[in-house]
Write a structure and sequence with these properties.
Layout lengths: L2 E4 L8 E5 L14 H14 L6 E5 L8 E6 L10 H15 L4 E5 L8 H16 L15 E5 L4 H24 L8 H12 L4 E5 L1 H6 L3 H7 L7 E8 L8 E5 L1 E5 L19 H16 L4 E11 L11 E3 L5 E3 L7 H16 L3 E6 L3 H7 L4 E5 L2 H14 L3 E3 L4 H5 L8 E2 L8 H10 L7 E5 L25 H9 L2
Parallel strand pairs: 1-6, 2-4, 2-5, 5-6, 9-11, 9-14, 10-11, 13-17, 14-18, 15-16
Antiparallel strand pairs: 3-4, 7-8, 8-11, 12-13, 15-18
Helix pairs in contact: 2-3, 3-4, 4-8, 5-8, 7-9, 8-14, 9-13, 11-14
Bound molecules: ligand BES, magnesium ion and zinc ion.
């Protein structure tokens, strides 16, 4: 999708505008000939500006607008930082359905919403809504109309559009690799993607099995040893901040398929465990955008990637392993594999980069879905200032997060009789927090925030429908962390 900016509407196949509930006008619309205008008024009455309703009107006389689309945005006081993202997504999908080459959207006047926010939402919503995972379909829909944004031009607006395009592309990249099936996406495939996005932009280092073993990455080595698709540790560096500025380290769990290992998962819905790489894909999408935006900060992406398989060489319940931090862990369930590979990556990140902060993303626990459902991610942190800042960003991007506590009681729940800790808590109690307690043990006192994205990383049965998140991976966290980094 190409995006253009114009001060006023020109000839277009589809002129789109927004209407508030019970309003008799389309916000910012130009003057139309009388016949078209009366058709617009009639359609306006039909949808009454109800949130999410769309109507398409063929223009009556031969004029420069082939069709007109009105989109209801509901009551003014109910408009959120997601309204224009959602509705623009629907508009773009309508334009695709009509097989158009292009369409124009009139940005509503500022009294409805802050202008930069609505422009950002329009770009993100329409781009993300047009992404479709059809790589393996013989017949592809694929057409993606171009968009003209009608708004009074300024440097600020141009910059916001450019930036929103890169951010949306980052989220789309995350979705597109997260959606790949496990036979087509192994740890080495992810390593190749990392190399591709880093070309001429970032440094990229891949640590393979022999070196992982030699350097003491006991968690990654143990979980990865059951699969013939060997584990990889992917490290991306974007160094555009000042030389002595400490970096932000981003860590993402990338289990390309989680069978549970010897503690095998039940068969129902096991296919969804192809999404167990979503945390790592989120970090890749963020890094791609960070490098394209050339953000003046130092950011490191670390992605431990494995396939968790049962087999003659798999690690087992009862095993005791030594993690990169030097601490030992008793394995009680091989399905609690995420915390093992993350612990290695977190410890490595802290040791090698002495970062200002560490942020991690992981589809870590089914318990998080029980606690918070499929529209809110779990957040656990050892640093109030850091978690508060990211929480502010979440209000801007509307990726919902909620903080859970991590006090000593929870740390005590993962103490082992035979090793420094065990890889699960006491039964199912506080499963999301005991998993985070394990991660907390991997680092010293670096400010750290963990996101459990088990419920939100892909659309599940209870997921609220959003135009810009069609079925499959959602790219959760990409817009969130890019907002946080851009404000740094
Ligand atoms: N990848 C899963 C968590 C998961 C489950 C994410 C369902 C999304 C949907 C993780 O590796 C796992 O299996 N966790 C176990 C931990 C338990 C054995 C302590 C879980 O949640 O059941
Ligand atoms: Mg598991
Ligand atoms: Zn897992």
């Amino acid at each position: 999708m190409k995006i253009k900016i114009e001060n006023s509407p020109k000839k277009t196949q589809l002129l789109c505008g927004f209407a508030l509930e019970k309003s008799d006008k389309v916000l910012g619309f130009p003057k139309l000939d009388s016949k078209t205008s009366s058709a617009v008024n009639q359609s306006l009455k039909d949808i009454d500006g109800k949130l999410g309703k769309l109507v398409v009107i063929p223009s009556i006389e031969k004029n420069q607008f082939q069709r007109i689309l009105i989109a209801g945005i509901g009551k003014k006081e109910d408009i959120t930082k997601d309204t224009f993202r959602q509705i623009s997504g629907k508009i773009a999908q309508k334009a695709r359905e009509l097989k158009l080459k292009e369409f124009s959207i009139i940005v509503p006047p500022t009294f409805v919403n802050e202008q930069i926010s609505s422009v950002t939402q329009i770009v993100e919503g329409s781009k993300m809504a047009l992404y479709k995972f059809e790589k393996f379909k013989t017949e592809k829909e694929a057409n993606s109309p171009d968009m003209t944004i009608i708004v009074s031009k300024s440097n600020k607006v141009t910059k916001a559009i450019k930036s929103a395009e890169i951010v949306a592309d980052g989220a789309i990249f995350t979705k597109s690799i997260a959606n790949l099936p496990p036979n087509e996406c192994t740890p080495s495939t992810l390593a190749d993607f990392a190399k591709t996005i880093s070309k001429n932009k970032m440094t990229c280092k891949i640590i393979s099995k022999p070196e992982l073993k030699k350097k003491g990455f006991g968690g990654i080595t143990a979980v990865g040893q059951g699969s013939k698709n060997e584990p990889k540790l992917i490290i991306l560096e974007h160094n555009h901040g000042s030389k002595n500025e400490k970096p932000i380290v981003l860590v993402g769990k990338a289990v390309t398929f989680d069978t549970g290992g010897i503690s095998l998962k039940p068969g129902a819905n096991m296919d969804e465990m192809k999404f167990d790489k979503c945390g790592g894909c989120t970090v890749l999408g963020i890094m791609k955008a960070v490098s394209e935006l050339k953000l003046p900060v130092n950011v490191i992406g670390i992605i431990p990637s494995v396939e968790n398989m049962p087999g003659g060489e798999s690690y087992r319940p009862g095993d005791i392993i030594k993690l990169y931090s030097g601490k030992t862990a008793e394995i009680l369930n091989t399905d609690a594999e995420g915390r093992l590979i993350l612990a290695d990556a977190l410890a490595y990140g802290e040791k090698h980069y002495s970062p200002k902060a560490i942020i991690d993303f992981a589809t870590l626990t089914g318990a998080c879905i029980i606690a918070l459902g499929t529209n809110v991610a779990g957040m656990i942190s050892n640093d109030e200032k850091l978690s508060k800042k990211i929480f502010e960003s979440s209000k801007e991007t509307t990726e919902q997060i909620w903080e859970l506590p991590l006090n000593q009681e929870f740390m005590d729940m993962i103490k082992s009789d035979v090793a420094d800790m065990k890889n699960m808590g006491i039964g199912r109690a506080a499963g999301t927090i005991t998993a985070a307690a394990f991660l907390r043990n991997a680092i010293e006192d670096t400010p750290w925030t963990h996101f459990d994205i088990a419920g939100v990383a892909w659309t599940q049965t209870a997921t609220k429908e959003k135009s810009y998140n069609p079925k499959g991976a959602t790219g959760f966290g990409v817009r969130l962390i890019l907002d946080y980094l851009q404000k740094m």
